[in-house]
Design brief:
Transferase(Phosphotransferase), domain 1; single chain; alpha/beta
Length: 741
């Protein structure tokens, strides 16, 4: 590892006695010279982690025929930009013990006979390319093979049953391909296996019990993201030395086997997103060394075992979205709400302490005190009922004499004068202007009172829909309150000195501006974005939390109708808040309290690029319109591309741009700053974690922005999905102890 630059000279052919070329991790560019084949004494060629491009020279395969007995044993071309087909002659270098082409752009089908032509191969690493076709059955003949890495390709078909004849195989990586069929029971023949990863394929059927007879299988077993069904065999308890087990995101059913508690060395357990039921096994008390456990999004019932409180090594515990009940334990990982434990989506759970952010548990009074208790409750209730009825009667009588004000939506807020706002903005000076929109201008105001700094949104009275937009926003904000919604401080509804109508809202000032200026910093005079993937995921969760509140917790539900990055504001801690409710609509007929919804405004609801397609066809506002806009924002957050970017023309749009790049070209469409945060970090799991999270966000964005509203998820489902990605990201951060992600 040095800083060598330039190209490999063609004159290298003169080095006839050269045995080793090791230029690992430099800045070598250009193509591999075909004259390299004339170095007839070469035993090892290591050119990995450079910037080599072009194709692999056909002449490389001649190295064996030109060499002496000490012929080529190592050919390492991993992590370059090589493309095209691998010359068949390369697969015929029978002396090779290591062959690595991983993380390039190579294509083609793996030769059906290379199990016969590489008899001495011990490590075969062809991962992260674009190889397609089936896995050759002739692999069974590679009897010296210890590590086989074919992951992140486009390989299809079934896993060959003959793979079980590789008795010396220690690591098998087939993940992220397009493999189908069943998991072959013959894998049990790989008696030396330490790691088996066949995740992210389309495998189906049940887990063969024979798989758990591999006593050496100890470092990792990953069957996640397939379509595996049936119950988990009780034989899983045989893997007593297993460190990491992942069977998540399948269709597994039945109860969690109690025998899993026999896997005493488990460090990580992932069983989320399945159909598992029953309670959490009592035998889990034996898993004292576990650091991560995810059982979320199943149908688990019963209580959370108290023994989790005693697990000193447990860092992440996810039990969310099950059917658990009873009190939340108080000790251990549960002692601090900031710890990485997740229990949302369990509606029957309760808390014994107010700090646990759950409904408090209700306890029944002792039986022997029941009569005293009833008397003590009924007497005050009877008195209270009598007083209440009398009060109601008085109110009814008074309402007959008092006429309601025309605009009750204004009554909620304290009214400031025009002079107050004039002085706070230095006469509405352009120097105080921080934003503008269709219906008004936004100034930063400085008040001498306890208000301090605030954002002042002045509505344009002469703009079509301006006055009704003001009333709409007042009505929308009057009765809603949430951490992720903009806070209204006051309002002003009066006339300016010239006699013109003047209306303004005074809002909490958000020091970090809006999401748009962070996603597109160059449009705001900044050179680069400082918004990491972790920050973007956090903001996405905040937006989803706000929508969940508006759509599912408000009565009646409220639809925002203009969701876009410029309407997502960020406070000093980068907490996101939705703003601009001028186009918002309650999902019920307009009340008699003077609120006129903005449906009379010409044109569809929302902003170009973010408007749900059905709005353009005259359909009524619905929560699925907001979900569509949210999906577009997610795609914009990971790509850095605005949906109205000039590149989107001739029928191409942001959604199609992302869809055409998944899953194998995800890094090509990512906002460059997302990966720039992690340059220089040595750890492939970090980049794998980033890729996985980004891929999930992209798929969510596509799912949320489906053309038909019927194909989009509900708000609760959307919130749960983005929470799951946050949990996955936290897991990556915790695993690598790298908090700058």
């Amino acid at each position: 590892m040095n800083s060598i630059r330039g190209e490999i000279p063609v004159t290298i052919s003169s080095c006839r006695r050269l045995k080793t070329i090791d230029l690992y991790s430099n800045s070598i560019k250009g193509e591999i010279p075909c004259t390299l084949a004339q170095c007839s004494s070469l035993q090892s060629v290591i050119l990995s982690s450079n910037n080599l491009q072009g194709s692999i020279p056909q002449q490389i395969g001649l190295l064996q025929s030109l060499s002496k007995l000490d012929s080529l044993q190592v050919l390492d071309l991993n992590h370059n930009n090589l493309s095209g087909y691998v010359p068949l002659a390369v697969y015929n270098i029978s002396s090779l013990t290591y062959l690595g082409f991983a993380f390039n752009h190579l294509v083609g089908i793996l030769p059906t006979n290379f199990g016969y032509t590489l008899p001495n191969i011990k490590e075969l690493i062809l991962a992260a390319n674009q190889f397609d076709g089936p896995i050759p059955a002739s692999l069974k003949n590679l009897q010296n093979l210890a590590i086989l890495g074919l992951y992140q390709n486009k390989l299809s078909g079934e896993i060959p049953k003959s793979i079980g004849k590789l008795e010396r195989l220690t690591e098998l990586y087939f993940q992220e391909n397009d493999l189908t069929g069943h998991i072959p029971a013959s894998l049990a023949g790989c008696r030396s296996l330490l790691i088996l990863n066949i995740s992210c394929n389309r495998l189906h059927g049940s887990i063969p019990m024979e798989l758990f007879s591999i006593s050496t299988l100890s470092l990792a077993l990953d069957l996640s993201y397939n379509k595996i069904s049936g119950e988990i065999p009780s034989e899983i308890g045989r893997l007593i030395s297993m460190n990491s087990l992942n069977v998540s995101n399948n269709q597994l059913s039945g109860e969690i086997p109690s025998t899993l508690g026999q896997c005493l060395l488990l460090d990580s357990l992932n069983m989320e997103v399945n159909l598992l039921n029953g309670s959490i096994p009592d035998t889990f008390i034996s898993l004292r060394g576990i650091t991560e456990m995810d059982l979320s999004r199943n149908n688990l019932s019963g209580i959370i075992p108290s023994f989790f409180e005693t697990f000193s090594t447990l860092k992440i515990l996810n039990l969310s979205f099950n059917d658990l009940e009873g009190p939340l334990p108080l000790g251990g990982i549960f002692a601090n709400a900031r710890n990485a434990f997740f229990i949302q989506g369990n509606s029957k759970m309760c808390a014994t302490s107010p700090i646990q952010q759950l409904p408090l548990c209700v306890t029944s009074p002792p039986t022997r005190k029941k009569i005293t208790y009833i008397v003590a409750v009924l007497v005050p209730l009877s008195t209270l009922l009598a007083v209440t009825l009398a009060s109601v009667a008085i109110i009814i009588l008074k309402r007959r004499k008092i006429k309601l004000p025309r605009n009750q939506s204004l009554k909620k807020f304290k009214n400031l004068s025009y002079a107050d706002l004039f002085n706070a903005t230095d006469g509405f000076s352009p120097n105080y202007l921080i934003g503008s929109g269709r219906f008004g201008l936004v100034y930063k105001g400085r008040f001498n009172s306890e208000i301090g700094s605030a954002a002042i949104k002045v509505f344009k009275p002469d703009q079509l829909g301006g006055p009704s937009n003001f009333l709409s926003e007042c009505e929308a904000l009057r009765n809603i309150r949430h951490r992720n919604l903009i806070k209204v401080i006051s309002l002003c509804s009066t006339f300016d000195p010239t006699g013109n109508e003047f209306k303004a809202l005074i809002l909490k000032y958000m020091v970090n501006g809006n999401l748009e200026c962070w996603l597109h910093p160059k449009d705001y005079g900044q050179s680069t974005s400082l918004l990491s993937l972790g920050s973007r995921i956090g903001i996405a969760v905040d937006i989803a939390a706000a929508l969940d509140y508006l759509h599912c917790r408000c009565t009646p539900p409220l639809v925002h109708c203009d969701l876009k990055p410029s309407n997502v504001l960020l406070d000093d801690e980068m907490v996101a808040c939705l703003s601009d409710f001028g186009l918002a609509k309650f999902l019920h007929p307009a009340s008699s309290m003077g609120f006129k919804d903005s449906s009379s405004i010409a044109g569809p609801r929302g902003s170009v690029g973010y408007i749900a397609p059905e709005y353009g066809m005259g359909c009524k506002a619905s929560i699925y319109g907001d979900i569509y806009s949210y999906g577009i924002i997610l795609l914009e957050m990971i790509t850095g591309k605005c949906p109205t970017d000039e590149m989107f023309k001739d029928g191409m749009n942001l959604r199609m741009f992302v869809e055409s790049s998944l899953p194998h070209k995800i890094f090509e469409i990512l906002e460059p700053d997302l990966t720039r945060f992690h340059e220089g970090v040595d750890g492939s799991q970090i980049m794998d974690g980033i890729k996985s999270c980004a891929l999930h966000i992209a798929n969510l964005g596509l799912n949320f922005s489906e053309i038909s509203p019927r194909d989009r998820p509900t708000t609760e489902e959307a919130y749960a999905e983005i929470l799951a990605i946050k949990e996955e990201f936290l897991t990556v951060c915790n695993r690598e102890s790298w908090q700058s992600l």
